[in-house]
Write a structure and sequence with these properties.
- This protein is α/β, with parallel strands linked by helices and about 240 residues long.
- It has a single domain, classed as Rossmann fold, CATH 3.40.50.300.
- The protein has helices at about 15-20, 40-50, 70-75, 80, 95-100, 105, 120-125, 130-155, 180-190, and strands at about 5-10, 25, 30-35, 55-60, 85-90, 110-120, 160-165, 165-170, 175-180, 190-200, 205-210, 220-225, 230.
- The longest helix has 24 residues, at about 130-155.
- It is globular, with a radius of gyration of 17 Å.
- The chain starts with 6 loop residues before the first strand and ends with a strand.
């Protein structure tokens, strides 16, 4: 490991330009949006880019959406070389997610560059519906997990990428993004916040860096979802 700060590029030129190159070592990024807006694809893309830099990724797949074929499309001809550098963990419930996050420090080595949790609210959502007291307990546990991730990210000098799903409801003539309490918890701990929103074109999404190391929001950029990943696109 060299003395320079690692920056893991997302692989989307316009987005990386706003992020001053990508996701910075020692920081946590939150990527949130509705279903089918490219969150997992972006996470896999970052894992592949991290592997290309010679570092390993711990990828916690809470939604069961990480498939070898998806990574192969993103990695291309490098798939065989890069695959062993991505350590995949698949918790089956929120308790297993807790177990993994509590022990992340044991899995990190000096060659680890990135931690991905996709999506951190997937198994959490399955626990809702048991009343306000249960919701309070779940939010408190999610907050504790985020605090633990934030500490590991900074002390072990890795990049963390957390994804979360939200939904939209239709009001009048426009869609309004609904952000559950969990999103406020996640945003509290994140150094970088990126929202992904659908557009009128099914394969084009709008990405907005809502918070970065400069603490300033930026103008949206448009990305195209393709078989081999997310790339600069047009509205």
């Amino acid at each position: 490991m060299n003395s320079l700060l690692r920056i893991v590029p997302t692989g989307c030129g316009s987005l990386d330009e706003q992020l001053k190159g990508g996701l910075l070592e020692g920081s946590m990024a939150l990527v949130y949006g509705e279903a089918e807006t490219g969150k997992t694809t972006l996470a896999i893309q970052c894992a592949v880019n991290c592997a290309r830099m010679g570092y390993k990724t711990i990828f916690v797949d809470c939604d069961g959406t990480f498939f070898g074929a998806r990574m192969e499309h993103v990695a291309g001809n490098d798939f065989g070389d890069l695959g062993p550098r991505i350590i995949l963990m698949k918790p089956e419930d929120f308790e297993q997610q807790t177990f993994i996050i509590d022990r992340l420090g044991d899995y990190i080595s000096r060659t680890t560059g990135l931690i991905v949790v996709d999506t951190i609210t997937g198994l959490y959502r399955e626990k809702f519906g048991d009343g306000a007291e249960k919701a309070f307990t779940l939010n408190r546990e999610l907050n504790r997990q985020m605090a633990s991730l934030a500490e590991i990210t900074k002390t072990r000098k890795v990049v963390s990428l957390i994804t979360s799903q939200v939904r939209s409801v239709f009001h009048g003539q426009q869609n309004e993004l609904v952000q559950p309490v969990a999103t406020r918890v996640l945003k509290f701990w994140a150094d970088t916040v990126i929202s992904l929103r659908p557009t009128a074109r099914a394969t084009v999404i709008r990405a907005t860096v809502e918070r970065n190391k400069d603490k300033k929001p930026t103008k949206p950029v448009f990305l195209k979802i393709q078989k081999n990943g997310l790339h600069n696109g047009k509205r």
